[in-house]
Amino acid sequence: MSAPLTSLDRPNSYIGRSVPRPNAKRLLAGRGRYVSDLKLPRMLHAGFLRSPHAHAKIVSIDTEQARALDGVHLVATGTDLARICTPWTGTLDHFKGMTSAPQLPLPVDRVVWAGQAVVAVVAESRAIAEDALELIEIAYEDLPVVVDIDSAREAGGPVINPGSANNTCFRSQLDNGTVDAAFAHATHVVEEEFTFGRHTAVTLEPRAIVADYDPAAGMLTVHHATQTPYQFQDLYSRHYGIPEARVRVIATDIGGSFGMKLHVYHEDMAVVGLSILLGRPVKYVADRIESFVSDIHARDHRVRARMALDAKGEILAMDVLDLTAVGAFSTYPRTSVVEGNQVIRLMGAPYRFKNYRASLEVIFQNKVQTSQYRAVGHPIACAVTERLVDMAASKLGLDPFAIRAQNVIADDAYPQTSATGYRFEALSHQACLKRLHEIMDYDGLRAEQADLRQRGVYRGIGIATFVEITNPSPAFYGVGGARISSQDGAILSLTPSGEVRCMISVTEQGQGTEAIISQIVADQLGLAPEHVKVITGDTEVTPHGGATWACRGAGIGGETALQATRGLKRNILEIAALILQEQPSALDIVDGEVVDAGTRKPRLPIAEIARIAYFRSDTLPPGTQAQLTVSHHFAPQGYPFAFTNGIQGCSLEVDVETGFIRVLKHFIVEDCGRVINPMLVDEQLRGGIVQGLGAALFEECRYSETGQLMNGSLADYLVPMPMEMPDIVIAHVETPTADTELGAKGVGEAGTAAASACVLNAVNDALAPFGATINSIPITPAKVLKALKRF
Amino acid sequence: MKARAFSYFRAATIDQALDAHARAGDDARFIAGGQSLVPALSLRLQAPRLLIDITHIGELRGVSREGGHLRIGALTRHCEMLSEPLIAEFAPLLHAAAPFVAHPAIRNRGTFGGSVALADPASEFPAMTLALDAEIEIAGASGRRRVKADDFFVDLFETALQPGELITAVYVPLFKADQRFAFDELARRRGDYALVGCGIMATCTDDLIDDIRISFFSVGNTPTRAKGAEATLIGSRLDAERIAAAQAALQGDLAPPDSDEVPPAMRLHLARVLLGRLLGRLGEGA
């Protein structure tokens, strides 16, 4: 690790060490407790009848036969649930002028995408519920379907939301007024149109929820596979009119989320209502087919962009138009415009140029909603920028490394503000570029490429620099009026046996949050991590906080744990000092023992302090009240976001006869500030890269002209599997943020941010001898063969 | 996704299985490995009243030599195509194709007879029965019969099997010293249905092709022999010119269907590339 020594580098430090995840063994042994494992007494099961039409009027719904089926307890329509649930609208105030239609758990008169849930059945079993669904008759009247971006924007074309003049959800413009002049003076201009397919998260565990309303207590308990239990506590309370303190959301083990599990889904809201109507627990687990048509999708952008350069290869300006289609309405409560907003703000982020203009247009269409998914907007901004940089390099006869080295913001030039207005505290592009060049053996790869080309083997080498947004402040959602916290809270207790329980608001979805929190607590208190029990994901137990999104767990949750632990340590040492008749400052804690701060000589186990404080307070000086439970909240201050940076490299081979692409090796140099657990950081990077490779080569939600999802199964929607995963070589540069003691920034999205850009550049590098180019992902064999004019 | 309720019957003999099917008024399905049927039931694409489990019928098991043929019992699992020495020795084309059939978990359960009976045009094994000139043994109310693979595959998921009939075994001519084979497929990911796949059996005298059977899958409604390509090769050596002629002949042999992801012209192109590579390998494998 390369970070400078600080107060974190204590004897027996657990920060910076690859400590195994405390929950890994349990999950591997099949002892995980997921929502789908949950069986409550008197629990019923919900199933949903979905619209086969992408856009249609609901003329009538006949549920008589379904209601009569044995084992069916309730059949509910949109009208039934609208009586108890208030509508929601997916807009935020800081996105000026954005619109979206109000939503209800189930539609009342109109369906707006194929797969939208229309009627709910609650029965003794899921199988019976599905039997009943087959007995429901819905008469629809087709409405004109808006599928692709062009027809959605057509003047006088069909409009999805009645009362709206067009299908525009949101427009935004960034312009510092100097772009036209910069292009006029440029020696070189490169320009291209890029397309990015729609794709989706495909979590191992699908969405799952058990809502349990107890009418006697007026209490709603929701077991919910979500990243953000507090957000849902607030929403269930608000939309069903139950006091917040009487809503409990429990998010236990979760099998992956990637941003997909923090949005309001109609079925989930419906299940809460169904439980209220019945006064019984109701369970709903989306099956894979349902996930494909109802989980949020992401991306789906078409970007026209150009870049101006001077004769020496200095980037002067960028000019960008991003069109993105988001489904029939904006997702609640985080909206569907954040991705587009980040696309236009992250363009060109690694580079020095100051002349920038961008337009964003967010458009409605009759497809399932899009919203935030791992690396929101980053892969698009990165691919557009990095491809233009490569195109410019090729025009100027510069090496891809050389043009980037010439244009990145220098490591010693921070703080800096980007052309798009983002404030960077400290980034390390130059160090990362240099390190990537080494770990790739770039010169060796180029020599091998030249040699193989002689023999008709076409390899490509691509690199992509990136900047990632992490540790978000209220500037992200809070300022827009969303009740989404950017602070976190922790409660720490010393147990009578001298162990520590830490209840913290960040949550665990398999990424290892609980592991790093236990490391930080263990490190800061002076205790082995196995003596720290971390508890997450229960709004009745853990304090209110932001939970997991936008790479905030380590940076914000970690700092919360650090400061809370320092508070607990002060309190423990105060009692120790009284017992040992010392000054607290003369004492420290190492490995569960209070020691002499200077000599490290053990004085007293902290278990003994706990014993005395809890059971023999009579032996302490009069007036002493031991405070062995502390609570602490931490809200990020200073920079609105802690930006991270890095660079990725890719070596691949294109079979120019079949169009197949084989990724040979992938590389990343990443700077997430303080690395708490190197193993977890590396696996976050690997997982993120694999998701980016999926976007680059495989994943796309393909729709028919009538708005039907054509590949909504795991046989047809391709995600990378082990055979498609290359070896991934990882290196780190560490530039801790000075905004926190911990200095950690996020790392969960860095891999995804640049992997697809890297592959795009590598494929174009491989195809260069043929004069063929591709500017669209996923890069399928069909696109490669088309570019090569092979059919 | 939950299947509609159905009755279950475990048959001990072929006769019991056939009888149960008839008594259910043919509203029944035989189940062996269930790798295609169970998803179809869960998706409610199929909802028979009765499932007849044939996995306990001893007569459907086992691989043995019978005269000039290898008898492969219908219940032979895909994984056994990899592990059974008789397959490797006498039906090496099946051995070569087996690793491409889905994934290990599916190969552990899926059966050869089930795959041939379903006749998925994108599956490896049905197409290989064509390349092997295999015969399919069928049991039905009127007794046993053997149908040549060439006559077995009728249309999309449609075969010579009549309702209530059961495949008992597949007979494959024993592999001989003067024969060569090749198999490969182009799939986006390992284990996926291929964009196009092909298996070839050739009988040669020195380097001259006496007989050749070229069978494609994922190119149409049924596994498809490339008879025009075969004709260009018989009596010839596998040189570059002949290979090019065989590739060109595919234009007349294959008529790939339209699909949003793989246009017909692209599939034909891929079939040509694949055939060229396989014939090249066959030529080198002298």
From TrEMBL, chain A:
Matching SMART domains: Ald_Xan_dh_C
InterPro entries xref list: Ald_Oxase/Xan_DH_a/b (IPR000674), Ald_Oxase/Xan_DH_a/b_sf (IPR036856), Ald_Oxase/xanthine_DH-like (IPR016208), AldOxase/xan_DH_MoCoBD1 (IPR008274), AldOxase/xan_DH_MoCoBD2 (IPR046867), AldOxase/xan_DH_Mopterin-bd_sf (IPR037165)
Keywords: Molybdenum, Oxidoreductase
SUPFAM superfamilies: CO dehydrogenase molybdoprotein N-domain-like, Molybdenum cofactor-binding domain
TM regions (residue ranges): none
Domain Aldehyde oxidase/xanthine dehydrogenase a/b hammerhead: residue ranges: 29-144
Pfam families: Ald_Xan_dh_C (PF01315), MoCoBD_1 (PF02738), MoCoBD_2 (PF20256)
Alphabetized Gene3D superfamilies for the sequence: Aldehyde oxidase/xanthine dehydrogenase, a/b hammerhead (3.90.1170.50), Aldehyde oxidase/xanthine dehydrogenase, molybdopterin binding domain (3.30.365.10)
GO molecular function, one term: oxidoreductase activity
Designated name of the protein: Xanthine dehydrogenase molybdenum binding subunit apoprotein
From TrEMBL, chain B:
Keyword Disulfide bond applies: no
Zinc among keywords: no
Domain FAD-binding PCMH-type: 1-177
Pfam assignment, any one: CO_deh_flav_C
One Gene Ontology MF term: oxidoreductase activity
Domain of life of the organism encoding this protein: Bacteria
Keywords: FAD, Flavoprotein, Oxidoreductase
Protein name in the entry: Carbon-monoxide dehydrogenase medium subunit
Organism: Bradyrhizobium sacchari
Biological classification of the source: Bacteria, Pseudomonadati, Pseudomonadota, Alphaproteobacteria, Hyphomicrobiales
